[in-house]
Amino acid sequence: MIKNILFTSVGRRVELVEAFRDAADRLGRRVCIHGSDIATTAPALFYCNRTHITVKIRDPKYIPELLEICKDNSIDLLIPTIDTDLLILSEHKEEFEAIGTKVMISAPEMIRICRDKRFTADFFEQCGLRSPQPVDSIEKYEGGYPCFIKPKDGSSSINAFAVNSEEELKTYVREVPDYIIQPFIEGREYTIDMFCDYDGYPVYITPRERILVREGEVIKTIVTADPQMVAEAKAIATKFHPCGPITVQLIRDSKTDTDYFIEINPRFGGGAPLSMKAGADSAEATIKLLFGEKVTYEENAAENGLEYSRFDQSVLSGGTKLTDITKLSEAASKLDGIRGVILDLDDTLYDEVDYVKSGFHVVAGIASRWYGEDDDVLFAELLSLFEEGAESISEFVRMHEAEDSEESRSREQELLEAYRGQNPSIRLTEEAQKLINALEEKKIAIGIISDGPPARQHKKLEVLGLDSDPGVKEIIITDELAGESNDPHIFRKPCPIAFEIMAMRLALPYRELAYVGDNISKDFIAPGRLGMHCFWYHNPVGIHNDSVDRRSI
User: Fold this and answer.
1) How many Å apart are CA 10 and CA 239, to the nearest integer?
2) How far apart are CA 486 and CA 417, in angstroms?
């Protein structure tokens, strides 16, 4: 079953998107990541499987647009990423859930507490914690200097200033809109990344020291398994009942070691992926919850003392280049400026269901000798199991064997090996042949990139005649990139290495390359990020078609 996750206002949250995709890969879950933003150039959009451009958050059309996106794309989970998104999504949470979209957001009354620093300070004190008490006018401030002035509903340290004298404060009061003033606490700054289940029970609590900060976002941090901070975070969760992630910031007074809590952001903070890397993998926990699994609290899940530094990187922007096609031949007419086309193999150039049926005929022929039933009857059983999404051969053996035994396990292994070693009865689809003919006629170089065990993939290429087609210049089986000792899965799509090698072999820049594939959950991330034009082929009988949920064998 494929699940759709939408990150709203995704902006520069590349690390967060990658953390979710990597978690889905590790769990073996099919997840399609959608991203929305107001600008086509938002870097994180190029790391999403599907992208959506929306109006600004304050536009009255924003919520109706998001609802339409969620409905049209069967979004299962919506995750906001910026403060200005939180309250409006929280207030409309029921509308999204009415169309089947879970919104990972806390209750509106809690969001309001977080959005106004005066309420936040009061909330911390209700939790039994200390917080520098704010005032909202210079006339009320009696806390001495230095002090701190910032907007009462600000974020990312925008318009937040340390002030050393009354004269400075008078100047900043004129510059900072709707401000609050707080006493300045001298000490070390910390963030606590906390992740809770849908009912508000903590799953991970990870304190991190903020060693270096730029524009309010941490760029150097160290995991700090501090029992006092963990206990304080639990006190916050008890009253707050978060749904999913919250990020809490505090300062530990350098003289008294007292913790003064500053703010709560009820979302994934910018540095949250660092806690995930350290072991408190809230992306993985989110996906487990999405698939109906239970997650429980794990003490000190993040490895203490790990230090992370973050850096910027570039991505080619200027608009998404993913074109939907229902016929492969459509791509041939949309290749202006393209000198090379990279093709996926399975379910793009041939129908993978034909490979499955071919293998089932082989399996049924062997099994008929054991079970005394007609080949066609056994083939129909295998195909029915496949269409139900079962592990077909394993379940087939369990149906016909009286008990789990060494013999039954041996028979299962024999059938699996026969399936995987078949000489498949497959052929290029008519549309695939039309596309290849058109590319050869236009003298466009053809490359093929395919995931999977090399022996099986090379046999398919041989049967289809692609390994000897003069128009096919280069073929890369990603598993072969691993060598003999490495895990081949790490080189499969969406890993970009095969696409980078293909571009070098064809001696073409990315902007002159196009890619054609069928699997929205993995095919287009790497080529899209590199700047290739991508064509998503909606194969009506495809195993990885959005509307079909079947397991490969």
Assistant:
1) 29
2) 22
